Amino acid sequence: MAHYKLKTPLSESDVRQLKLEDNVSIDGTIFGIRDATQIRIFDHHIAPPADLTGSVCLHTAPGVRKLPDGRYEKICIGTTTSTRMDRFVPGLIEQYGVRVIVGKGGVLQGSIEAMQRTGAVYLAIVGGAAALETLQIEEIEEVWWEDLMPECLWKFRVKEFGPLIVAVDSHGNSHYRAIQERAAARIAALEL
Amino acid sequence: MQAIYDTIETVARDLYWKALKDIPEDVRTALKGGLQAEQQVGNSTAEQVLFTILENIKTADEHGMLVCQDTGLPIYKVVIGSRAGIDVAELKARIRRACERATAEYPLRSNTVHPLTRKHTGTNTGEGIPIIKVEFAPGADHLEITMAPKGSGSENMSFLRMLNPSEGRKGIKKFVLQCIFESGAKPCPPMIVGIGLGGTSDVAMQLAKEASTFRKIGTSNADAEVASLERELLDHINQTGIGPQGLGGATTALAVNIEWAHTHISHNPVAVNIQCWRGERASAIIAADGKVKYGNGAL
Fold first, then answer.
1. How confident is the model over B177-193, as pLDDT tens digits?
2. What is the span of the domain harbouring residue B230?
């Protein structure tokens, strides 16, 4: 298992080199998105007001405090379950050029195939470890669609964001799928 | 008399914050045990996940930060001494006010929305929220409040099946393992598995919530038959290898807790409710003289 330090924006070759269970940390900027953000993009057909080409998208809805000058101060930024938003992943990758989804819980077959076709990966963060994530996010740089608070489109500046574990690579492999297949076989073998 | 309700409001507010920041001692011990188990079998991904979880708990302690961003749906369990002379309607109003204050004063992310319009209330309160469970302690003159901000990732993994009596113990085990398999990585394992057996359908779900969220790790059900099923299921669940965060490993569950009620001759209800690794809860006892003693839940 190799360790990679990646800097945004990311190219196809940046993500094609990654293999299951490799370790990644990210420097640069990442975007925060959640259910309502993506319902607006894909179900209401409103294009995101920021360029997501080569970007890293994190499944999150942060806790924040609005400052008098209109900026947002971070209070707690963590990660939510990706599986709930799985149907949006192929669109993010193929229409908008997203290279990395960071989340927890994993994504399903359609997303795995889209990642293989286009060159993107799914990186698992440790769900619930929001105190560490919050410290690794240096600043909330921009916020769009504030009417969806807290499910806005967020742009965060990050330093050594991680540890992130490659859980779906860009070659059609899913670590979650392998673990679940093994679990199914083990359950079937149990003497109940 | 007014003073006791002011105390209840302050304590209920502080418990919301404490539950989000201070992981209970029994949960910390179980997570450290999980890390040792993964180190012994040499599973480096699982080891890294558990190490990161423990680092995160330490970071939250040192910086006074929230452990996880999910501030949950607030659940309060209140045990009122039968001699405490508490007006339950006023107590419920004060706990509701406490949630509004906890949310505004910190500020906490509010999660409460209308189930159809998805419109936010912005206060972590609303129709039926906070959830307040009231029980009575015969002869006591104090008050015990336990707060749990139940997170959505684990709560979304809730299941109920009205099995046939003929499916028996084996059917119960099969259903629970199916629930764990379906949950996979989603509820932030290593999880605490709460199971409710018996009663009617609603009672089974409530028992499962009591088991997952309000019972300490390391406790066993008083009924020997039920306790043996807890041990058996914990072993089976950890044999699945789903592991921390669903990335593989020996530590899928930190505990299996079962609560039960008698049921109908035609019923065999099984409810499953999952709690994530943070096992968040905080408790306080308010004595008759108004003195407050805080703890980590299930005092």
1. 999 999 999 999 999 99
2. 153-275
Contact A126 B52 (CB under 8 A): yes
In a mutational test of the A interface, the residue from B48, B59, B69, B247 whose CB has the highest number of chain A CBs within 10 Å is B69
- Residues 56-95 (A) with a CB less than 8 A from some CB of B: 60-65, 75-81, 83-84
For this complex, say whether ipTM is above 0.85.
Answer: yes
Q: Per residue in A67-112, pLDDT tens?
A: 999 999 999 999 999 999 999 999 999 999 999 999 999 999 999 9
CATH of A3-189, one of 1.20.1250.20, 3.20.130.10, 3.40.50.1460, 3.40.5.10: 3.20.130.10
pTM: 0.96
DSSP collapsed to 3 states, chain B: CHHHHHHHHHHHHHHHHHHHHCCCHHHHHHHHHHHHHHHHHCCHHHHHHHHHHHHHHHHHHHHCCCCCCCCCEEEEEEEEECCCCCCHHHHHHHHHHHHHHHHHHCCCCCCCECCCCCCECCCCCECCECEEEEEEECCCCCEEEEEEEECHHHHCCEEEEEECHHHHHHHHHHHHHHHHHHHCCCCCCCEEEEEEECCCHHHHHHHHHHHHHHCCCCCCCCCHHHHHHHHHHHHHHHHCCCCHHHCCCCCCEEEEEEEECCCCCCCEEEEEEEECCCCCCEEEEECCCCCEEEECCCC
